[in-house]
Amino acid sequence: MQGGERYNSINDYLKSAFGRKTVKLSLDAGFTCPNRDGSKGYGGCAFCSEGGSGELAAHTPSISDSITEQIDRLSEKWPDAAYIAYFQSFTNTYAPVQRLREVYYAALSDPRISGIAIGTRPDCLPPDVLALLEEINKEHFLWVELGLQSIHPDTQSAMNLCYTTADYDKASAALSALGIKFVTHLILGLPGETEDMMIESLNYVCNSGIRPFGLKLHLMNIVKTSPLYEAMPDYIPFASMDEYVDFVVTCLELIPPDITIHRLTGDVPRKILVSPEWSYRKRSILNAINRELSLRGTHQGAKSK
């Protein structure tokens, strides 16, 4: 942990790895998901927007143009940054492997790009895709993001995930065996889940099987273009920002200190956000988390196993 932070942030990790501020460029490469195209289901995950949770991603006919669009948008704020191409929208390993090869190497061949991050589902890593990822990992900076969200079967079914915890176990073991870093996503505040259930998912990821390189803790956001909004338009996952902040700090204390923290809240455009109404105040939430950590005199891993 660097820079006075009380948790092991990915920002610090990347600054150490590349010697400067490193920014992820969110890209939409035009993929879909197996629970959207009928392979496993329709409609997508219940909480997911119609844009595959990639509203902030660039989507142009060429990867190079998308990279340029994102750099143009972000370079004024970070003029001397390094860049990672982040394939974010939908399932970014769900395509024929030759198509994936073209997309990934289009980004990696851009001299402005220092590495790639690939968001996917745990059930979309067949052997040929794993072989491609292994090849890339030998020569380039790479991590893969696995959207687990919850270990609880009832939640997985209600949210139309169309994958299981066993799929996650298989994917994490396969990536680990190949030496590929992976980041696990969990959603805090899914309908029907208690705080104890969320802690069970967190402890499972951190202490069962293969430990991830990183964690993303997402605040459950209800967005206008999601199936969940149609089904539960009045759902509010946490009563207040203070309640959420308190719970995140409790989670951080349970996360082993070697795991990098990639996210502690949500990141949804305000125009499609329904609830929590305070979720768009990302900087305020992060400041409140840091403040609460300081007030408690605690830090990531303070109560980890």
General description of the model:
The protein has 305 residues and is of the alpha/beta class. The chain has a single domain (10-296), classed as Aldolase class I (TIM Barrel), CATH 3.20.20. Helices cover 37% and strands 17% of the residues. The chain is built from ten helices and nine strands. The protein has helices spanning 10-18, 63-74, 97-108, 127-139, 153-158, 165-177, 195-207, 227-231, 241-254, 282-296, and strands at residues 22-27, 82-87, 113-120, 141-149, 181-188, 214-219, 222-223, 260-263, 273-275. The protein has a seven-stranded parallel beta sheet with strand order 1-2-3-4-5-6-8, sandwiched between helices. It has a two-stranded antiparallel ribbon with strand order 7-9. It is globular, with a radius of gyration of 18 Å.
How would you summarize what this structure contains?
This protein has 305 residues and is α/β, with parallel strands linked by helices. Helix content is 37%, strand content 17%.
